[in-house]
């Protein structure tokens, strides 16, 4: 059985920025199925995938992984190579940046050289390491990277007389000469003083070259044939291929990946063996007589059919998340044109499910032959094997689908589909939510009921009739995912400056429902074009996120009925008031059990705010944290574990927060780190498991008071300073805590070593 082990980094250094963006608090929920490159180091396989790298030891079955959660600085890997002699790897990303992985740590390089006037794609197409040099292929040509200095050397910009750039698809170094595969042939040039002058490069072979590799020999290919040789003369492998996807060369072999097949040849072109993988491949590798296939979705596949990869979702694309105890469901849809149209979805994904022990991808999404744009998935709280998902897509397949999980088959079985219409432009279901009676409700866009042009709508599931009922909200057309609080179903309207709240009377009948609307006349931002999100906090206030700011409706359940006024959150600084998130798109709001708020800003990362919003506790961006990108489409807090799930279209990242279930009394109080050794840790000491309001007194061993405070929200951080602002001396300190009314107490010890 394969064992998953953590990948430990001794040192992480970043060129350009000195901030370490990963820590032990972060873990990824990335997919490691799309294997781009496979390399080897002393019997261990190294696989580069879309969002990370994993390491596999065949003799033990051990797997470790490396991602932005524990050392890398980006996602969307596009190229990788590794030198087993120097133990240095080079990771290239779609945005043109690089990570240098060495025994000393990981260095981030962002200063890729660009030609004056070049406005093309900066994606790293290919990397090949020879000794202490690496040649990097980009849309403008090639650049030589010096691994010892971690800096770029010579670059050659492939431009013709008209100034048009030609991409280097792949390039290698052999005998101080760079060979580059381009759409017009195989080019070469010695690394010398004229290297940068494209007109001095030699045309080695004509043709539309796609692949190039260097090991014992150089091998290159077009779509259907492979040639190999010393660099001055070449021979053809006597075999034609359907569609060559990759060529890899080791010291003894040439490995050709052709769609779903891998063929292995000796360095003299002699055929050795082939393997039909039965699925689309990216690359292949041959080691100790065994073929390893790098697949597009299943990880590394062996000749015996075993799949090798860290467990994770089927794909990195994610949009919304549903948590039920230790189970997870991730939807994958998206929309464009101000939440109007289903986004182009070439992968045609469905949803992913974590059972509590492993990830499952329903085979239905692979075999049904239908198009999917799954915006939301909801599991029945009374029976989590029963799930519903919405298909928001202009294909006549739009509707709500019911499925049942079969644990023995580790797969979902299709149960029913509740079609919402055949017209491709209308009746598109968006979000789903269960109430505390396990009744299912949903939001539906462009509902034609009572309005041929379409309006926002509410759905309810009649379980006895096994059918959905619909109610027009008679406003707008597009909708967001609903939430339920205190008998009201709240639905944000992203294409109009408004939000609805429906009193659904606690039933699935829609006939007697009352609908209330909050709009610009109630104080929503006048420059807003739509409401994107809503959350109800622990005091009953509604936090409403628009595409141009944030508003709060106090005592929402009662005030919504009385022409309420919503207010901005005002932050005062130096005597001046500033509106919180003014002119910002508020994508998602999540409230933790301590009433603090996690707020996702479109393009601005995630803010963690105090209960009133007047204090920023943390601000995570893709630049200062492992977030995959700065537009987080969903946030969920697991109050049992304190984990915070950040969902993006580039993958899911998990942060270990400090707030667990918060009540009037204490939970399991934990102080960490403890002991605090200054040489190893220079941050604050955290105390979690506190009451909603906690009075804190910290004394030294003699009973002298050194610090006191009032904590709200279930946790507290102490900077180890006494009441004079001076760091306390080494020793044992006692933390004495009482809740708000003094009916519950807790104590803890902190050991400090300066």
Automatic annotation (TrEMBL):
Q: What start and end residues bound the annotated signal peptide?
A: 1-18
Alphabetically sorted, this entry's keywords are: Signal
Coiled-coil regions, chain positions: none
Q: Does the keyword NADP apply?
A: no
InterPro entries hit by this protein: PorZ_N, Secre_tail, WD40/YVTN_repeat-like_dom_sf
Which residues belong to any copy of the PorZ N-terminal beta-propeller domain?
Answer: 47-201
Q: Extract the Pfam families matched here.
A: PorZ_N_b_propeller
Name used for this protein in its record: T9SS type A sorting domain-containing protein
């Amino acid at each position: 059985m394969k064992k998953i082990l953590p990948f430990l980094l001794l040192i992480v250094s970043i060129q350009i920025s000195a901030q370490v963006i990963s820590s032990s608090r972060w873990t990824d929920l990335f997919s490691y199925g799309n294997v781009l490159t496979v390399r080897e180091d002393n019997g261990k396989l190294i696989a580069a995938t879309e969002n990370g790298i994993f390491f596999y030891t065949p003799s033990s079955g051990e797997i470790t992984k490396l991602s932005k959660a524990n050392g890398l600085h980006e996602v969307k890997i596009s190229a990788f190579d590794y030198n087993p002699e120097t133990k240095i790897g080079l990771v290239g990303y779609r945005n043109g940046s690089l990570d240098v992985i060495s025994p000393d740590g990981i260095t981030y390089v962002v200063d890729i050289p660009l030609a004056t006037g070049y406005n093309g794609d900066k994606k790293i197409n290919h990397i090949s390491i020879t000794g202490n040099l690496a040649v990097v292929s980009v849309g403008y040509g090639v650049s030589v990277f010096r691994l010892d200095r971690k800096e770029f050397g010579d670059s050659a910009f492939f431009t013709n007389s008209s100034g048009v750039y030609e991409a280097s698809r792949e390039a290698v170094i052999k005998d101080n000469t760079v060979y580059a595969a381009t759409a017009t042939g195989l080019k070469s040039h010695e690394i010398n003083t004229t290297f940068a002058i494209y007109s001095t490069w030699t045309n080695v072979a004509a043709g539309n070259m796609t692949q190039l590799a260097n090991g014992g020999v150089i091998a290159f290919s077009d779509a259907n044939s492979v040639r190999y040789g010393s660099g001055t003369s070449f021979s053809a492998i006597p075999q034609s291929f359907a569609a060559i996807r990759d060529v890899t060369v080791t010291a003894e072999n040439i490995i050709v990946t052709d769609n779903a097949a891998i063929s292995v040849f000796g360095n003299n072109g002699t055929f050795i063996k082939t393997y039909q993988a039965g699925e689309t491949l990216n690359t292949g590798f041959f080691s100790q007589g065994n073929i390893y296939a790098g697949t597009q979705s299943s990880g590394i596949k062996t000749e015996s059919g075993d799949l090798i990869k860290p467990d994770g979702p089927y794909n990195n694309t994610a949009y919304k998340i549903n948590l039920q105890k230790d189970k997870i469901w991730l939807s994958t849809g998206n929309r464009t044109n101000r939440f109007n149209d289903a986004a182009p979805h070439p992968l045609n994904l469905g949803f992913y499910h974590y059972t509590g022990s492993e990830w499952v991808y329903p085979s239905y999404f692979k075999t049904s032959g239908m198009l999917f744009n799954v915006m939301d998935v909801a599991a029945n709280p009374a029976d989590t094997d029963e799930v519903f998902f919405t298909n928001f897509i202009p294909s006549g397949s739009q509707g709500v689908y019911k499925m049942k999980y079969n644990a023995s088959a580790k797969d979902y079985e299709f149960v029913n589909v509740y079609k919402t219409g055949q017209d491709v432009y209308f009746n598109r279901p968006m979000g789903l939510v269960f109430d505390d009676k396990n009744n299912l409700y949903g939001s539906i866009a462009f509902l034609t009921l009572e309005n041929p042009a379409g309006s926002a709508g509410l759905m309810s599931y009649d379980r006895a009739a096994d059918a959905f009922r619909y109610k027009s909200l008679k406003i707008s057309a597009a909708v967001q995912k609903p939430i339920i609080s205190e008998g009201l179903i709240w639905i944000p309207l992203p294409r109009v400056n408004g939000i609805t709240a429906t009193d659904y009377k606690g039933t699935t009948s829609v006939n007697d429902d009352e609908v209330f609307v909050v709009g610009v006349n109630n104080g929503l931002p006048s420059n807003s074009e739509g409401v994107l999100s809503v959350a109800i906090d622990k005091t009953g206030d509604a936090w409403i996120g628009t595409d141009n700011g944030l508003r709060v409706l106090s005592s929402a359940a009662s005030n919504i009925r009385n022409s309420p006024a919503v207010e901005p959150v005002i932050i005062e600084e130096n005597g001046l008031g500033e509106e919180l998130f003014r002119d910002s798109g508020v994508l998602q709001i999540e409230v933790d059990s301590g009433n603090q708020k996690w707020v996702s800003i479109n393009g601005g990362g995630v803010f963690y705010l105090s209960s009133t919003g007047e204090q920023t506790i943390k601000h995570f961006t893709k630049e200062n944290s492992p977030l995959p990108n700065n537009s987080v489409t969903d946030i969920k807090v697991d109050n049992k574990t304190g984990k915070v799930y950040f969902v993006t279209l580039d993958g899911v990242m998990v942060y270990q927060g400090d707030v667990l279930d918060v009540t009037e009394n204490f939970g399991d109080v934990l102080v960490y780190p403890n002991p605090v050794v200054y040489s190893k840790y220079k941050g604050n000491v955290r105390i979690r498991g506190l009451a909603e309001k906690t009075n804190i007194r910290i004394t030294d061993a003699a009973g002298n008071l050194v610090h006191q405070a009032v904590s709200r929200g279930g946790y507290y951080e102490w900077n180890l300073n006494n009441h004079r602002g001076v760091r306390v001396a080494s020793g044992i300190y006692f933390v004495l805590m009482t809740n708000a009314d003094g009916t519950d107490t807790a104590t803890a010890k902190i050991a400090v070593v300066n």
